[in-house]
Amino acid sequence: MSKLENKVAIVTGASKGIGASIAKYFAAEGAKVVVNYASSKEGADKIVKEITNLGGTAISIQADVSNEADVIRLFEETKTAFGKLDILVNNAGIYQYAPIEQVSVESVHQHFNINVLGSILAIREALKLFGDKGGNIINISSGASNTPLPTGSVYSATKAALDAITIALSKEFSGRNIRINSILPGVVETEGSHSAGFIGSDFEAKLVATTPLGRTGQPEDIAKVVFLASDDAGWITGEKISVSGGIYGI
Ligand code: NAP
């Protein structure tokens, strides 16, 4: 039997990049998947089509995770479509690196609203659908949480906050059969990391040179941690798990 048979999962920010890969891996393991997106309907529908073409089950739902009404609707529509929820992956996130002198109030609010508030809102709504049976939450953090880099103060702060939420909630959920973990990716080649100018830069070359496994990550490297959402990880909660080719090993 596949690892996620009969499970229902929401993956936020799954129209591209790491989220899209996680959605596809979950579906391949038998989960019914909600492919959430903010504005890229075309991208999300393409992922849904890739999943259904392989015999899986998926739908796309638009919702800006930083908007409370949108998040409430995302979970209501999931309930209408699939009747329940077992797994939430908080993957939607933004990352803009800038020297502190250039950091604007708007940018700080945007990073925290999407990366932190968005995850909190989604977890709050997920709990209602998990019900008494419990559930599973994976927060996509970053190696930048444990190893902040110059010009990344705001982004690193959001991911350190997300990790703190993971640890606090793993204890708060005691006795409720809800596991919650953070995955901390290293640099992964995605649309986002291309737009941010990481891929092909001197920065990437330096990172690769000091990465024990000697390469930049691909979205599938993160998605393969799918086992965390399955019963195989039944005794793992409150952990920060680096998936970074060794560079961000804790
Ligand atoms: P990406 O290629 O830029 O894709 C971002 C995804 O998030 C898109 O699906 C986007 O949807 C969605 N999104 C953005 N804002 C949203 C919002 N307000 N509400 C709902 N969805 C929203 O990003 P990525 O590189 O795959 O990164 C995914 C996650 O991994 C992020 O949390 C990031 O911090 C983390 N991470 C990435 C790397 C890396 O090197 N790539 C490393 C460590 C951690 P639309 O397309 O509709 O806008």
Question: How many helices in DSSP terms?
Answer: 9
- Helicity, as a percent range: 40-55%
* Average residue-wise pLDDT: 96
Task: Note the beta-strand portion.
Answer: 15-25%
Distance between the amino and carboxyl termini: 33 Å
> Largest sheet at a glance?
7 strands, parallel
- Low-confidence runs (pLDDT<50, min 5 residues)? none
Looking at CATH, the homologous superfamily is NAD(P)-binding Rossmann-like Domain
| CATH architecture level-2 label | 3-Layer(aba) Sandwich
The CATH class name reads: Alpha Beta
Summarize the SSE layout with pairings:
Blueprint: E1 8-11, H1 17-28, E2 32-37, H2 41-53, E3 57-62, H3 68-82, E4 87-90, H4 105-130, E5 135-140, H5 143-146, H6 153-172, E6 178-185, H7 191-195, H8 202-209, H9 219-223, E7 240-243
Parallel strand pairs: 1-2, 1-4, 2-3, 4-5, 5-6, 6-7
Helix pairs in contact: 1-2, 3-4, 4-6
The structure holds NADP nicotinamide-adenine-dinucleotide phosphate.
How would you explain this protein's 3D organization?
- It is a single chain.
- The protein has about 250 residues and is α/β, with parallel strands linked by helices.
- The chain has one domain (about 10-190, about 220-235): NAD(P)-binding Rossmann-like Domain (Rossmann fold, 3-Layer(aba) Sandwich).
- It has helices spanning about 15-30, 40-55, 70-80, 105-130, 145, 155-170, 190-195, 200-210, 220-225; strands at about 10, 30-35, 55-60, 85-90, 135-140, 180-185, 240-245.
- β4, α4 (about 105-130) and β5 form a beta-alpha-beta unit.
- α3 packs parallel to α4.
- The site of NADP nicotinamide-adenine-dinucleotide phosphate has 32 residues, from α1, β2 and α7.
